[in-house]
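--- STAGE predict ---
source: upstream dedup step, 1 unique chain passed
mode: sequence only
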Amino acid sequence: MHIPRVYLDQELNCATHIKIGEPQAHHLLNVLRIKASDPLILFNGRGGEYQAKVTERSRQLLLVEILEFNPVNRESSLKIHLLMSLLKRDKMNQAVTRAVELGVSEITPVRTDNASISIKQEKSSYASLQQAVQSAAEQCGCTQLPILQPGQLLAEAVAGLQPGLKLVAEAGQPRLSSYGHSKPRTLTLLIGPEGGLSQQELAFLIRRDFHPFGFGARTLRAETAPAALLALLQQRWADH
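--- STAGE serialize ---
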């Protein structure tokens, strides 16, 4: 039996009752047809999750009893910070959703020379991206919500990075296997826009200790690349 998972940005404690309102209540009531006594799994992105059950329901509200804490941890042992050039809303949401499902710990949208979105569009899309993060976390079993940073200039995003292996996806570059077998604990992956990174941007990244790597002879779509490359990184250094 599938038990719905619900992300709530609040404190959760056993043996308490809480109310679930919009927008989560709409999906639970009208899409999943949740009834009184049905089980739920609640999490707040701070580790672990809670077994709960619905005690009352109305048209726009659920009353839920929190029963038990489960300290489960499904996060990747590899801390991956994804820097991703801004895309149009639907493509960006798709890419972010797949990135969360594949275990990133942090996502920073970056403005690059060939980005296909304006600053105005970028600002209006942040709430949609945050919802994509939350929905993906509910679906895939995350117990810690990935951090979604606001959009930043490329140089600004790179300047604030933590130490660790830094990779930039670039067609025609060596495969990942060329970087040895030592397992990193933290990793930054940068993926450029649909038009690719400019030569100036690529040179800048190499000066900042980024290692270019490729994915064979094929050029991936910008919204496809995060899923393909993150799966590769997880299989090589973490989730296996």
